[in-house]
Amino acid sequence: MAESHARPGIETRSIDWVPDGERHGKVWHQGPLWFLGNFQYFTIAVGFVGPSLGLPLGPTILAGVLGIVVGTLFMAFHASQGPVLGLPQMIQSRAQFGYRGVIVVLAATIFTYVGFNVADQVLLSQGLNGIFGWDPTLVAVGSAVVAVLLAVYGHDWLHRVFRWLLYVSLPLMLLVTFGVLTGQAGGGHVPNQHLAFSWAAFFAQFSAAAAYNITYAPYVSDYSRYLPRTTSPKALIASVFFGASGSAVWLISLGAWLALRLGAGDGLVGLREAGDHVLPGLGAAAAVLSALSLVATMGMNAYGGMLTVLTGIDSFRPIKPSRPARVVAILALAVLWYAIASLISADAVATVFTALTLMLYLLVPWTAANLVDFFFVRRGHYAVMDLFRPTGIYGVWSWRGLTAYAAGIAAEIPFMVLPDLGGWSYTGPMARQLAGTDVAWLVGLAVSAVVFLAVSRSRSETEEAAAVARSEEQLATA
After folding, report:
1. Alpha-carbon distance 181 to 65, whole Å?
2. pTM of the model
């Protein structure tokens, strides 16, 4: 399924199955990977969402913590699929949506990858310009180049770079946080702040935090698919959950403090100011490492986006997984996110909130169908070989998954609260009845899960069991 001899350091596999003999991953690598995946500037900016809507510090932190816990649970359960199947997440989703039907979900996933890197580029350009006066265009180009290189080198290099950055940045962030807790980082009452609790602002912060880790769901198993089949699901879920939630809770809380006690308008600038209060130069160093970690996360997004693009192409015209295909897909994504980010003039917090809201609406119906299928319908038993052919047991267009996805999106619309998009916004009739409180994604989650479970009763378990057995025989000789 892939080239047999790899150029040193460059991954050869892309959307193909990973044989047991190549399963060299370790569960403990997952914790640092996802801890650092959130241990960067974007996470700090998520903590600015509640304050931007007038939410006080305590409720902002509470909403952020609850949102992260809920969102990370979904993410961690998706991670457990990697060792079982040895496949990228979007290939596995063909079982729910069909060989070509998965293109519907792929479109939402591509939007997520591009949307994250667009927001990342805006955050980096504005933040580093605010701290050091660096030219925003040069920052954007430089971050894109580094992200592309990381994505090209692939799985193993992404794991290594994330661990290295974690070892260096963790002590600095501990010092900054110690300064905040002991009052050495400055801060206090900020004049002209009008703060008051509201459920609309609380749920906005809750949803932004939940979206932050739910949006990892389409590619979390891309990084666990190199783990052995014998990997303990409980150990893997715990490693991903505590890694991804620990750093997110920490930095969202720090972001809320920077916004409300330091009066910072930008997370990176606020981090520099707080750190330099503790120790001269500490803030600048912490800010630079936080920015570098965000660039590494952009590489992760580019890598996942590449797998999604190739899956989409392969769904209509079978392709051979190869290095050139990977590189071309990554470069195309880089050009796209750079061009879009260059046209955005909104402030960083507004960009982050808008991107997270749209990602959540689009991905929640998919995550509901995918997890219900894996844990309750097929219980982890799939005909892997059939996922790579349109004549397989899962069909070309699977009406079950597509129906559940469409039902979830339709159910969300009356409850949606879309933030400003170029002067246009939308608040659904049910959301207006709830004083602007956004619960659309919770409604979509429940509806898609129930619908998929209901329509799956009509599938032929005997026929699928035979296909699974044939597939396992073929994989044994692959």
Report:
1. 18
2. 0.86
Angle at 55 between CA 49 and CA 56, to 5 degrees: 120
Residues in the chain: 478
Domain of 131, CATH number, reads 1.10.4160.10
Q: How far apart are CA 439 and CA 360, in angstroms?
A: 11
Q: Using CA atoms, how far apart are residues 41 and 64, in angstroms rounded to an integer?
A: 16
Joined tokens for residue 160: 């290594």
| Count of structural domains, the chain | 1
CA distances from 233 to 41, 217, 229 (A): 30, 16, 10
Closest CA to 68 of 205, 215, 245: 245
**Domain interval for residue 95:** 20-349
CA–CA gap between residue 57 and residue 331 (Å, rounded): 41
* Beta strand segments in 259-355, E: none
What letter represents residue 24's amino acid?
H
CB distance 158 to 15 below 8 Å: no
- Which residue's entry shows tokens 């296909």? 467
> Looking at the domain assignment, is residue 365 inside a domain?
no
* Helix, strand or coil, per DSSP, at residue 147: helix
CA atoms of 281 and 277, how far apart (whole Å): 9
Q: Is the pLDDT reported for residue 2 higher than 50? A: no
Asked if residue 164 is part of any domain, the answer here is yes
The answer to whether residue 449 is domain-embedded is no
pLDDT exceeds 70 at position 421: no
Query: Does residue 369 belong to any structural domain of this protein?
Result: no
Query: Token pair of 430, please?
Result: 């049910």
The string of pLDDT tens digits covering residues 442-458 is 999 999 999 999 999 99
